[in-house]
Write a structure and sequence with these properties.
Elements: H1 3-16, H2 20-33, E1 36-44, E2 47-53, E3 65-70, H3 76-83, H4 86-89, E4 93-97, H5 100-109, E5 115-118, H6 120-128, H7 132-143, H8 146-149, H9 167-175, H10 191-205, E6 213-217, H11 227-233, H12 237-249, E7 252-256
Parallel strand pairs: 3-4, 4-5, 6-7
Antiparallel strand pairs: 1-2, 2-3
Helix pairs in contact: 1-2, 1-6, 3-5, 9-10
Length: about 260
């Protein structure tokens, strides 16, 4: 059975009668063909809330997208209001409507253009395309204000899906296990970003070093105070615990000034 046919079958079942187990099947289908699953499933009276990621889309706010699969036509207003609480209010959110009857009711509850209602027709169209993620990306670009999706902000560390380049430096950090490095250069050229990406890749690969890797922000240090003197003093409880951990298992610090 094709992905599109499977989606149509699940949507038809949900149209006849809302059932949470069928809803979960629909969510598993979504994660198999469109997005990557994240923890955080919640059950509402008229739907199931879940979280998904679209790391290949290279848009702002798509690494943790709250989604609501809406099925029960009788509880649309209450379910949507519960979903769009403080936790999700300022994020890009997707409301997936399993039936045509829920679309207009859901749109009536949505006030923020970043909260996107996806019809059952669109739900069936996405998997039928050659590239479902690209289809969804195009849909988001048409539906959400472009300014909300711009991923570039030189004042902030970029999201992981926007990191690119620096392969030589990353390979050197990953491969040279017994060498200490200083990442130096003018402000805003990506020193902190490189350190964060290095730590993220250690975690992603399950590298044992990730269990003993600490990113230490400059706020932990006083100006012109050496790391050695601060570590020896034991005044900072976090660094004191880090020293105790280091004595037992070994540790390396990513110190960010």
């Amino acid at each position: 059975m094709t992905a599109a046919a499977q989606a149509e079958q699940l949507l038809a079942a949900l149209w006849r009668s809302w059932d949470a187990s069928t809803g979960l099947e629909m969510i598993r289908w979504w994660h198999s063909h469109v997005g990557r699953p994240l923890p955080g499933t919640k059950y509402h009276e008229g739907g199931v809330e879940f979280r998904t990621a679209f790391p290949e889309s290279r848009l702002h706010g798509v690494l943790d997208v709250p989604c609501l699969l809406l099925g029960d036509r009788k509880a649309v207003a209450r379910t949507v209001d519960e979903f769009l609480t403080v936790e999700n209010r300022d994020k890009i959110c997707l409301i997936l409507c399993a039936t045509d009857q829920t679309v207009e009711a859901a749109r009536a509850r949505v006030k923020d253009p970043r909260h996107v209602v996806i019809s059952s027709e669109m739900l069936a169209t996405i998997p039928a395309s050659a590239d479902p993620q690209r289809t969804l990306r195009s849909f988001l670009l048409r539906s959400v204000p472009r300014r909300s999706l711009i991923p570039y902000n030189y004042l902030l560390t970029p999201e992981p899906n926007m990191f690119f380049g620096r392969d030589f430096e990353l390979d050197k950090l990953m491969e040279d296990r017994d060498t200490s490095y200083a990442i130096v250069g003018p402000g805003k050229i990506g020193k902190t970003t490189l350190a964060i990406e290095y730590r993220r890749r250690l975690l992603q690969k399950g590298d044992p070093r990730s269990q003993a890797c600490f990113l230490v922000d400059k706020s932990l240090f006083k100006l012109r105070t050496s790391i050695g003197r601060l570590l020896e003093s034991g005044r900072n409880p976090r660094l004191k615990r880090a020293c105790q951990f280091s004595k037992r298992r070994g540790m390396f610090l990513l110190a960010d000034w």
